[in-house]
Amino acid sequence: MLGLVIVADLFAVWADFLQLDVTGDLMDGVYGADVTRRADHSDNVYSLAGVAQVATLVAGVAVYLCWFYRVRVNAEVFDRSAHSKARGWAIGAWFTPVVNLWFPRRITLDIWDASTAWGARRSHGLVNAWWSLWIISLLGGRAASRSYSRAETASELHEAARMMLVADVLDAVAAVLAIAVVLGLTRMQHEKALAGSAPQPAEPGLV
């Protein structure tokens, strides 16, 4: 499903370029039947891209949250004390205003730490990169949508399309990193489960 999100984002990037091309001509004072036809085509593609993004996001969220809750439950088996949030937050954190800007990241890091192999170094680079890009693209996309809906001139539409292009590219990259997080965390839990319980320190005097 994350792969489909990436496809929808790339489709949206193409729609953004169409918008930039048409609004650029309008800003330069280029008019005519061809520009009007391209503008109508661009608006249709832009609307279709928005529908595709919403559809893949909703489907992706449903599947992702099922996986996320399962790995949260699995992580308790490895280390019950490693979690700063109750299990229910694995779902609720994503839908609670304001706290959804950082609670899911904190829960992911708790799961990541509990799932890391015994004695291995805990690196949060991948999770932090994914979450940072996801938040930036989310906020950027909302700002671009507001700018687009309020735009009244070609230059304002052009700027809104530029903002949306950046947001769509970042969202696609964030989805790629999300795939890496899903695969990495799933593999970590599988390998830790196969490794069994934590190795016990040797008793003094024994070799």
Task: Give a description of the structure.
The chain is mostly helical and 207 residues long. The chain has one domain. The chain has helices at residues 2-27, 33-78, 89-92, 103-115, 125-150, 154-195. α1 runs antiparallel to α6 (154-195) and α2 (33-78) packs parallel to α6 (154-195). The chain is elongated. The N and C termini lie far apart (51 Å).
Give the secondary structure arrangement, pairings included.
Layout: H1 2-27, H2 33-78, H3 89-92, H4 103-115, H5 125-150, H6 154-195
Helix pairs in contact: 1-2, 1-6, 2-4, 2-6, 5-6
By secondary-structure content and strand pairing, the structural class works out as mainly alpha
C-alpha Rg (nearest Å)? 22 Å
Give the terminus-to-terminus CA distance: 51 Å
What is the total number of structural domains? Answer: 1
Features:
mainly alpha, single chain, 6 helices, 207 residues
Briefly say what this structure is:
Helices cover 76% and strands 0% of the residues.
